[in-house]
Write a structure and sequence with these properties.
Radius of gyration: 18 Å
Strand content: 35-45%
Number of strands: 19
Helix content: 10-25%
CATH superfamily of the largest domain: Diaminopimelate Epimerase, Chain A, domain 1
Number of domains: 2
Shape: globular
């Protein structure tokens, strides 16, 4: 089977996007993992499948690099808006809205959720200051912005060994659905952040992570809206007020279009 795809990225967080609205696509975790493989496949942080929707302009499903399907991806949402012009997108986390904003794309995600069982966490605790520690990382702020995140405010994110702490926290039993892990510093020009993404590892940027970090910084009075979130791959502007949905604005880049031989890919992966 020949499968057409688009390679796109949002601030270096890269995606293979397959449009299944006209060509029926049976995506599996194994196929997504093979496509995402950077040595034997196309290579990406996440595989995105666009599908028809009765609730929005289109639907979007997301598989991480490890083949696990997840609820939301902010950078991918902006890429899908840039690619298709969709104004509304149905995701497993809910309906999001998108629009062009000059050379950038803006998407409006869900209202943040802060309750321990909404994130989710395995047992009740203060999600604004988790009574848990992983080495130098303590008092994390947990929030769900369509998917689960924990943010640690530190003096210098570059000095945190996320290659070690990231998978340790992601897979901690306290987070039954695993969790995205971020270290951030609040400075005069905004937040400076690095991310370990659930199922993908270190990435150059995390859109929902930027939303989560900005919400955490605003809620703890470390920043005021709008917040500039600086990541290794670039900067996003996040706008949020308590009780409202989160708005995220930033770039979305189309790299190339290609055709994938799925049958040959399966042989290479076996």
């Amino acid at each position: 089977m020949q499968l057409q795809f688009h390679k796109m990225h949002g601030l270096g967080n890269d995606f293979v996007i397959v449009d299944g609205r006209e060509q029926a696509v049976s995506m599996t975790s194994a196929l997504a993992r093979s496509i995402a493989d950077r040595h034997r496949g196309v290579g990406c942080d996440q595989l995105i499948l666009i599908a028809p929707s009765t609730k929005a302009d289109l639907a979007m499903r997301i598989w991480n690099h490890d083949g696990g399907e997840v609820e939301s991806c902010g950078n991918a949402s902006r890429c899908v808006v840039a690619l298709t012009g969709a104004k509304t997108i149905e995701t497993p986390a809910g309906i999001i809205e998108g629009s062009s904003a000059g050379s950038d794309v803006e998407v409006t995600t869900i209202e943040p959720r802060f309750a321990w069982d909404e994130i989710p966490i395995a047992y009740p605790m203060d999600t604004a200051s988790l009574p848990l520690e992983w080495g130098e990382l303590t008092n994390g702020f947990a929030v769900n912005v369509g998917n689960p995140h924990v943010i640690f405010f530190v003096p210098d994110p570059d000095k945190i060994d996320l290659d070690h702490r990231g998978p340790e926290i992601e897979n901690d039993p306290a987070f039954p659905e695993r969790v995205n892990v971020h270290v951030a510093a609040a400075r005069e020009d905004g937040l400076h952040m690095r991310s370990w993404e659930r199922g993908a590892g270190l990435t150059l940027a995390c859109g929902t992570g930027a939303c989560a970090a900005a919400v955490a910084a605003i809620a703890t009075k470390r920043a005021t809206s709008p917040v500039m979130v600086h990541m290794p791959g670039g900067t996003l502007t996040i706008t949020w007020e308590a009780g409202q949905r989160v708005r995220m604005r930033g770039g979305a880049t189309h790299v190339f279009t290609g055709t994938l031989d799925v049958d040959n890919l399966a042989k290479c992966a076996s």
